[in-house]
Predict the structure.
Amino acid sequence: MSTVTLKNLVKDYPNGFRAITDLSLHLDDGEFLVLVGPSGCGKSTALRMIAGLEDITSGDIYVGDRRLNDVAPKDRDMAMVFQNYALYPQMTVAENIAFPLKLRRVPRAEREAQVRQAAEILELTEQLEKKPAHLSGGQRQRVAMGRAIVRHPALFLMDEPLSNLDAKLRVQMRADIAGIQRELGVTTFYVTHDQVEAMTMGDRVAVIKDGILQQVDTPEGIYGSPDNVFVAAFIGSPSMNLYEATLERHEEAGGDRYSVVLGDQRLAVPSEVVAERPALTEHLNRPVVVGIRPEHLEDAAVVADHPDDQRLDATVDVREALGAETLVHFNLSAPSVDSGDPDALDELRDSGRCTARFSASSTARVGDRARVNVDARHLHFFDRQTHLAIRS
Amino acid sequence: MILLVVWSVTPFVWTAQTSIKFTRDVASKTPVLWGYETTANAYRNFWLDSDDVNMWGVLAFVLVIAAIAAALGLIGRRARHGWPWFLGATAVICVALWRFPRFWEANDEYDFLVNSVVVTLLTMLISLSIGLLAGYGLARYTGISGAVILIVALGFRALPRTAFVLPYFFGAKEIDEWLTSTGVGSWNFPLIDFPGIDTLQVLDTRLAIVLALVAVNQPFTIWMLRSFFIEVPKEMEEAAMMDGATRLQAFRKVIIPIMWPAIIATGLFTMLLAYNEYLFVRVLAPTEWTLPVAIVSLTGGESSRTITEAAAASVSITLPIVIVIILFQKHLVRGLGAGAVKG
């Protein structure tokens, strides 16, 4: 068990492509850090560099005080779980799990005891004599985990270990892996493209895009105050609604009032929101990016008690009743903002598209003209040029 | 499909029939297809070179030895530690060969058989060793020079065999002349003092045949093994290395076991090629014949007596191959079907 430090890691491929730019991260002892990003953002490359499977162009990797740049993978004391599990097909489950111990010349009796212990943790005791080909996806996944935990490494590396499982199993394994990690207390570096996994499993989440680290924070921190437009849109499902809007100030006797102009509608912004972000006043009467999370939109027919100037009108395009809540899509005639997520569906980039998370009791139907309450205290503001959050 | 089977099986059936006929039936103008008297004379002549040995006794002896060896082998496969049993099987065969030298010393055919076995095994061994390493390297290395090597190898494979024979022959001759003229050929090497070999030479040795066969066959083994290696996900050796293996250990303990079916399939094809080779043996080894050449020599004359003997020989040398293929056919199919490694 140990800390992990990445210092200014850079990876250039021979064809000149820069996969990782200046990546610096620190993992505390026993911490579960999830590196999340869209496909092709360099997150697997980062993981493979830590593992030693990929050369480092520049920068340093430390585990504890030990610099690992030129250490062979086998001597790094790390265990890795691969996306396709990479189980050895010719070996039984028990042999698969025992393989790392065998390579370390652990005596047979001790080896068998450790394999049995790992199998119990992972509920694989019944499967020990089977070959991987005869296991279900979830069982294979657990064998891969078993091979990792059996040797008590300094660091777990996990490369999208759940992406080959079906949705239901994924939810279960998500909890299982997080539970096992907490039980063993091994520092873990976990890579995924699934922001739900990132949010639910990680002690901290690092968001990466195009090889550049965007933000590192606790799941709550990342969700509550994203550093830029990309993180805002990438974390959270359904993702944040982002529009270009103009911030206006109305000078009045009782103090200044603010509002944003979203297309042809006007939304009042509580003065404390602006007071918390003095920098916003520099953007007055200029376009800024405004973000609204779907859960901060509510059907006015359900919650009547809401300031009237913090409401928007829209026609319901699509309604998805999920039972506990109802997702409603409508169109605000305001220009949307491209967050730069290559995985985002094109239709989500339709101008003005907006998703709201209404209470299940909402009766809004497709085609209805709905009044929508906006919880304006939770608006997010970003610079239109730099896409950085306006917070201070 | 049926037509194809008939088309390819008929000649062999004809040969097999010829081998057990009396010469008078073979030589008759109208082919005698049914109801002829059968005889094992041709086999006796070919393998025992005499009429007065009790052929069935010999056959029974060979079968008993084979059965004991096979039984030991089977037990060895089941047992936890198989090697003592395999060793036992080998010992039984060796003792049998050693106790009954009167056949194979008196008879040229056994020299040819030994030549065949040695050439085949050596060709397989060398060809597979090079093929495994090269195939692995070329499967993992994706640079331009890898592609060039592969294309060049394929090109050489496409050239007709006859294009290689004469260069090899003259090359071997040059080496031999150099060995003789410099005296290197008559040096005494204390450690490799082969009995019966006074001077080193290349031409007319099994070495020449093996080297030539390896050279011609290498492109095939490299291509075939490479295509199997590509099927093995890269994560396999990466996982092994993360588990604490060196690159070589990963190759030996993880990749090679996954590749077994492929290795067996490739090995079988190489074996067939070496075992059946005629041209190279005929040209490069004027006296160190292997079995196919020996058989052809029997068909040279006009005498119909040797025709039955040639037929008997053909059938005899086919049998070991058929047995090997039957033993390994499971692997052969798996090897050809590949893709099974993805677990």
Remarks:
- Chain A touches chain B at residues 51-53, 72-74, 78-80, 82-90, 99-100, 103-104, 132-133, 140, 147, 151, 157 (CB under 8 Å).
- The first helix of chain A runs from residue 43 to 51.
- The radius of gyration of chain A is 25 Å.
- The longest strand of chain A covers residues 311-321.
